[in-house]
Design brief:
91 residues; alpha+beta; five-stranded mixed beta sheet; globular
Length: 91
């Protein structure tokens, strides 16, 4: 990575294709890296903590994906990018 640039890992609808253990390991790795911004767009039940975050906020995803930044849910999205609804961030 050239100096002065921010490394970003972005993925959408890919982690559902690996098992839960691999997803948990990947999430743990991404959250351990302070030098990387991690942006995910996955189904609500795909990443280990996403469903719990939505439940805490009283949000039902209704089949939408969850856009998260560094593991924090920030929006519900249409699975093909057709919609975006920001959500309150858990402190």
């Amino acid at each position: 990575m050239p100096a002065g640039n921010q490394p970003v890992v972005f993925h959408s609808a890919v982690l559902a294709y690996v098992d839960a253990e691999a997803r948990a390991r990947f999430a743990s790795l991404m959250q351990s890296r302070d030098d990387i911004v991690w942006i995910s767009n996955e189904g609500a039940g795909v990443l280990p903590d996403t469903r719990a975050q939505l439940e805490t906020l009283g949000i039902e995803p209704d089949g939408r994906f969850v856009l998260s930044v560094d593991g924090q849910a920030v929006a519900l999205t249409g699975p093909h990018g057709q919609s975006y609804v920001g959500i309150a961030v858990i402190p």
